[in-house]
## 1
Amino acid sequence: MLPFFISEFPPRQAGELATEEQIRAACDARELIYDGGFEMSDVFEHAAGWNSTTDSVAIYFYDYAAPESSPAQSGERNGRVISSQSGARIRVSQALTLCPGTSYDFSAYSRQERTSSECSAEFVIGGQSLFLAQPGTSWEFGSERYTVTGSDAEAASVDLDIIFVCIGSGDDDGSRVIDIDDVSMTPVESPVDDEK
Ligand SMILES: [Ca+2]
């Protein structure tokens, strides 16, 4: 039997509360991130299910078709941020629907093109910072646990924000590059009761 993935459904609309149906689906799901592998790109290289916001014109996010010489962590594509200005920030977000009272293992892979760019990715869920990745030039794994403490639709409706910034120098073209792939959020199999 195939596992049930939340990605069979479009994500919750940003700014709206999850419906009862969406929460039921989240409670049955084995993977809560929609297209965490960034394989679902449109022709404009927009990553399905992900939105990006920034105040700067010097930084952007897109769904990158990785070449064989520098492959994605999985599949053929990964999320990529390119910054032409030190200190420019971009927020890449997905509106999550989670199961109330459930603990999740959240994880993601990241890498940057050159460490002198000093790029980082901060992973934030529901306003709570989970971890800051400052990767090397090979794919690096990061993970942290997140527990949905409330029991209502508001607690189930939280946003994942990944905040990218590069404070170092660019390459010869003046660009700083950081990649992410395989963003994943799965329910903890054996929740520890006394942590609730
Ligand atoms: Ca991928």
Note: The mean pLDDT is 91.
## 2
Amino acid sequence: MRTRIMRHRRMVTVWMTTGSAAFLAAVALTASPSAESRLGQTSGQAAAPVAPRPADVDSFRTTIEPIFMRDRGGTMPGYAACVMCHTWQTSLRFDLETPATDAGWTAEQSRMNFEMITQLVNTGTPENSWLLLKPLEPKAGGLGHTGGTFWQSRDDPEYQTVLKWIRSLPADRYVQAPAPRVDFEFFRSCVQPVFANPREGQIKCSNCHGGGLIGFAPVPRDGRTTWNEKEAQEAFRVISRLIVAGNPVQSRFLLKPLHPDGGGSYAHNGPRRWQNRNDTEWQMLAAWVRGEKKGTSCS
Ligand code: HEC
Ligand code: HEC
């Protein structure tokens, strides 16, 4: 299994670097209209971490980890095993250990996976757990997921298994702190201009992020230079998936165009707009993600 995962990883990396432009164009915009209201349920844990109950780790190992490992017959979004992408997408919270053996994770690795996964579940309102909403079809209430749709509806047996497991955890243990509201007005006035105004020697975000699943920067239609309400709302829904409200350093929007030496992602097939987090524009966007910036004033 290990060699297969390593090979798969390479394949996914190749896919990411060579096939992604086609992928961007091919996948339709699927973020759900209600995504905004649920944005960033999982910005942090309310309570101080407590040692997990061994029985919870055991049930995680026997019922949930096999779902992450399951071969789905392909390497493309919606067909690849969760482990293929989620062992190396380092800027994500959903970051599984690389399985130690063919049989899967060791008990210690499972414990680490468990601690990680509890940031993506919400035992207060289990249905709102990101672990359930990401792989779920947006029309069925899912958030939209660059890794693809795995569950067409809430009736999917895997969805049900995960939901049941989340409900089996102590209800008050893995409750996520309420996330701040990220303001749409500020997005329109101060964030969208970032997509249209490249820095010297760089190309616009809109050139590559004009449509598809990560199309947060659609080009305004009908020769307009600014976005209308509908276009802005669509863009906001897409970007909402790529930020974690309240948590700029786990927000892909703020990591992908940030230089790796300054704390950004290792890979982005586009420009590095910010050298480090001291960049005033990065600071402004981070404040917006924390819910501190509202309205139309960008300073
Ligand atoms: C082809 C690669 C790929 C596959 C396969 C994949 N994902 Fe993802 N996943 C991503 C990417 C990229 C992101 C970040 C962008 C986004 O949130 O849509 C992500 C984000 C997530 C998140 C949110 C993580 C966070 O930090 O907020 C969850 C939860 C998730 N995926 C669950 C799954 C599950 C469960 C599976 C398997 C059923 C899976 N993914 C399969 C690529 C993948
Ligand atoms: C030359 C084309 C190009 C440009 C210009 C570009 N990007 Fe990208 N971007 C990509 C590609 C391709 C991907 C998917 C593969 C990857 O993650 O690198 C991507 C991925 C991303 C992601 C992660 C999406 C996800 O679902 O995980 C974010 C966020 C992002 N870009 C932000 C930006 C921002 C902001 C700008 C403008 C400052 C920008 N990009 C400019 C090509 C580009």
Note: Residues 2-168 form one domain.
